Amino acid sequence: MDGSIVISIVIAFLVVRWFRRFMNTATYLPQWDNVLKQSWLVFIVFIVIGQLFSIKDSHLNDWYLFITFSGVVVALFMMRSYRPARTLLLAVIPFMFCFLVSTLLESIVPSFAKQYGDLLDSSKVFASIWLFTFVIIARNQKKTIEADRLKQEAEAERTRMIEAQNADLEQLVQARTAELMGQKEELQQALVHLQAAQNQLIQSEKMASLGELTAGIAHEIQNPLNFVNNFAEVSVELVDELKEELAKPEIDKDYILDLADNLTLSQQKINHHGRRADAIVKAMLQHSRSSTDERQLIDINALCDEFLRLSYHGLRAKDKEFNAELVTQFDPKADKIMAAGQEMGRVLLNLFNNAFYSVSEKKKRKIGPADYMPLVQVGTKRLSDQIEIRVRDNGLGIPQEVLDKIYQPFFTTKPTGEGTGLGLSLSYDIITKGHNGTLKVNTSENEFAEFVITLPASDGISVS
To answer: Where is each Histidine kinase domain found (predicted)?
Structure first.
């Protein structure tokens, strides 16, 4: 067998092998890939046959290559939807045409082929250049397509991961939503309990105010009752002396008249202090009958004076050693305002209690000069169409860092157990929301605190 034929068969085998890899026939032409994969058996058969029969045709090697390229052309045609296959098809067809014409002429008309050998060789060279050029183009196209494929796969993978993450996030959102719904229900229950506790604390604050008011009333009414008891005892003694004198044989009329005058004076004192106690009781009954919704004309000067004394005596009832100087400056023009007496009394009582507590604590802590004397001042003043009430003490004052919080519910500067933190909050609401007034504070820490209440005047008369 001619060595050139073997070389041609080897070249054909390598062409098929390169074609399979380059065109990735396992993916784009799977039905032909197994056939191409086993083509080496066909080439071995050709070599064996040639060796057995001692085939030495010089043109046989060309036909081996032609058949191989023909198979490649058929495969490329079947893969024409693949862009690099179309490019290779354009590259191989001219090469095949030149190769076929040259082989046919050399086999059938050798003289013609010899005469135009240079032209045929040139056409083969041109066809080879054409082939390799388009192979390079197809290779670049394949790289581009492969890059696009990898990009699409990466995009698909990214999309799949995003979808998976979205699914996971959706599950997390659903779980979190269920958790938040559970927390919402718990918070709603907590809010209900908190509101109930708040109402209970407000009621406790009111009861605490009532307790302090009651202590003040008890101390205030105790004075006239003591006078009544004392003068009643004196009256009994005077009556006994009068009986003894009348039982004597000789009656001293002047002494009897003197006893009668003293007895009359004692009865007048009893009557005076009895009326005082009666006035206190009636005032408290009137105060207790007032409601937050009912407005009536009240004497603001009398109300301030009354609750100042009640607050003071209430603290004195708890602390016998406490003493303070009380200074009142009531403007006669600030007499009547339209207000709810019970609510205004609660506000004044709260401000007075805070003032007395502040000066008492300052005295106990020994802050200030050694001769420090607790002082609480209360004043009223008519300002145009408003009534102003000032409550000032020379106690601990209010620290600047908590000044913005004093009207917040449940905020207190008092130690635990000595205040609910609702007094000033309720007072602020009563003055601002219930009576269309204002409640402001001026203070300096460890020096003084002054609360200023302004209320609309009831008569509508402007005072210049």
So the answer is: 216-459
